[in-house]
Structures are given as C-alpha cells and as structure tokens.
User: Fold this.
Amino acid sequence: MRKVGIVASLSTVIDARLILNEGEERKVRSEDLVHIHNRNGNEILAVCRTAVGSNENLSVGGFSPGIAYARLGKHPSSAKEYYAFMLDVLGDVNSGTLEQNKTVLAPGSDVELYEDSDNPMSRLGTSGGSVGYYKDHPKWMVPMNANFIPYHIGVFATTGAGKSLLTRHQIVPFLQKGGYDVLIIDWKGSDYAPFANSKFTMADLALDDENVADYLRAAMNDFGYYVSSYIERNPMRSALEEVTLQREWRTQQTPAELRKYIEKEVTKKIAEEHTKQGAADPDYYGKQYIARFKKSLAKVSDKDIANVMGNTEPKAIIEKLRKEHFVAIDVSAGLKEMKLSVFLTIAKYLRQMMQEKQELKIALVIDEGPQYCPFMPRGLESKTSDTISDLCALGRSYKLSIVILSQGMAGDIGINAAVRRNLNTLFIGKIHPLDLEEAKRLLAQGRIDEKSLTMLPEGDFYLTGKMNPSPVPLLIHFDLPEEVD
Assistant:
C-alpha cells in the first residue's frame, strides 16, 4: 500500500471525503479500495466512489482572473486546485476481519491505496465461493456468503450486458459449489440448454392437468376472443377444462387421435349445455360455440398438440437433476402461455416437496423474468407471479433458491414488485435509463452515481445484498467468453 491522501472534514462513521496528494489524481480511480489509519484509533477499509476536481480560480459563479486566463486559452494557477473522492466505509478491520465501524473518522487521517499485490479480500471473511472478481483485480476473488443462497438472487442488466453468461459461467458453478442442484427454465432454448448436463423439451414433460387446458387454449388463440371477459368466461373454455381434468385424453397415442378425441368430447359437452330438454339439436348459441371451437382447434398444429402428450413427470426431472446436478428445460417451442404452463407444472411439484417438509437444495433459474412476473401481471401471468412469490416464501426454509434474470427492474420493463422484494442478493449491470430511480433505491447503501449504471461495460455488475460480504455494494467483473449474450 502507498499513501495517496488524507481524510477531509465533515467525515462520519460511514463515509468521508478523501483529498488526494498531488499527482495521485492520475492514479487513483473510482471503485479503488483504500485503507484509512483512523487517528481516532482504528483501521478502516473503504472504497472510492464519486470524485470531484475543484479549482477556485476557475469557478464560474462570477468573473475572476482565472476566468480571464481561460478566455485567453491559458491555464490559471493550480495553487487552489484539489481532487477528492467520496469514500464509502466497508467496515473496521482492526481485528483482521470486517466489522461494523462505530468510530467517527478523524479529519487528517492518512489514507493508503490497496495495490494489486495487497488483496484486501482476505479481510472480508471466509469464502463460500465467488462470482467473478473485484473490478480491475483478477486475483481479488470476492468471497460470497453461501448461507444466503436460499434467500434468492436477481440478475438485472440490459441485453448484451452479460446476464446469461454471468449466470452460466459464474452463478451456476457457485450454486453447485454450495451444494445446490441447478434447474434452469430456458425461455429461448439457446442460452443454457445446449450447455446443461441434461435437458428436457416441452414435448417431454407431462403437464399438470389443470395446465393442459391453459396450454391448449393458448394454442387456439383464446378461441379468437380478444376481450378478457370473453377469454375467461365462455362455454368452450369450461368444456375444455372439464375434458382435460378427466384424464382420459392421456390414453390417446398420437396427436391426430388426441385432436379427434378433444374435438368430440368438447363439442359433446357444449351441446349438452346448450340443448334444451326435448330438443334434438343445440340452440343457436351452442352451434356457434361448436363451430368456433372446431375452427380454433383446426389451426393448432400437430406439434403443438404433441407438446401435451409428454410422459415425463416432474418427479422424474428432479430425480434426473439429483444425478446430473445441472438440468435445463427448453421451452422455446411454444407460445408464452404454453411456457408458463410448463413452469407452473414444475413449480407445483417443488411446492409439494416443500409441503412434505423435504429439504430441496435446488436452485431454480428463471430466464426472462418479466415474461413470468411482469410489473402488471394479467391472465396466466398473475398465477405465475403468485406462484413465484409463494416459492420464495417457502424456499427460505426448505433451501429452494429462486434465481431470476431480467432486462429491467421496475415499471413496464421490469418484474413484479412483490417478487422483486423477495430477491435478497442482486447483481446489477448496465441498466436502461428508465430504471435509474429503482437502481438508486436498491444501491442506496453506497454513494454510487446511478447514471454511471447506464454506462457500465459488459461483464461489470454491482453486487449487493445478503451474499455480499460488504455492507455497501461492490463492483465485480467477470471475463466474458467468446460468445454473444
């Protein structure tokens, strides 16, 4: 370490300003870690945050000789020039490990810069593994507290910032090192499924009975309705749900046979509902519903029908997960509601396991979070949002970790607030400008300029929350492989 400056006035127990020695402004950078020899008797670890350069001769509040020099293209005296950083205190390291600082920082205390060979990460506690390394220092592996894995994880960044790569190359190995088997629901089918130890497709999975009707209804484009009241309440939907819950449809061997069976049974139930006693045929409305249902079913491909004919139960997937430790479910071959139905089938079984008091030690990774739990959920999204919140609440006790990836945090581009508040460890990379306010709230423990979050390079993420060994956010980095996120 080398001395780079001293603590300025108006310091507190949690922050201070660092006045740099002359020439150090060219060497000390934002996010550098420093050591404060507090003149009040203890040793402090801190991080450089926002910076300011000041020269009274160049103040633009009024005319001065310095301004006159500047107008002539000359440089005024630098006698009244200084550079300063705002410091966030990580904690007291008097004992060799990080503890809460309760002693006010004395102005004039010497500040030293940690250089690459010093590695202050050893002061942050025993490592339960790491995700990336401290920014600009590949040898400084940030120790993570694996005890908080079941308190759930959120990964937020815009497209191309490295969310999927961070998850696949850093978070998944960290979870596995912590003893967790990782089950990923791959929305696009290309980010994780090709690299998993084993994978399943939508056509493999035996959907839960109550989700089959939602799947088929979505495949039939809600029978051509666009008004929510007609989508939710109509004889075709009721008849379809009744037929699927009877389970006899599972005896059909081919998509053609299943199509024929569904058409026959659903139209039969619609006819029964709309045929008055003593009449031979359905009434006008019954005939219209039957015609609409047949027309909608005809538009469904055999491939979509085959997706409900899988026979792999969630129990078999979990058994495979126990053996392979990293399993992906490729849900790319289907509409949104179909994908949500797959998630609900898996989620129902996981919830059943927890209700039976089983300790899971499973991490469920949900890619494209806003598709499952958007800011304003509608239709099936409301069910998946409530289910994720329920899994989070139970997971803390039964060691189920929910990991959600999202391009946005809040509002129209983000995830539901009830879900977001269950994520107690966050990785925040480059964000959309619409998320500035939410990022400011989530990173409130640190003096981070939230505008800088819109300019973070690929592979840079602020770590904050339960698994962070520091009480303030830390900027970590991982080296992106030669892939496109």
In short: Residues 6 and 110 are 5 Å apart (CA to CA). The longest strand covers residues 43-55. Residues 212-306 form one domain. The two ends are 38 Å apart (CA to CA).
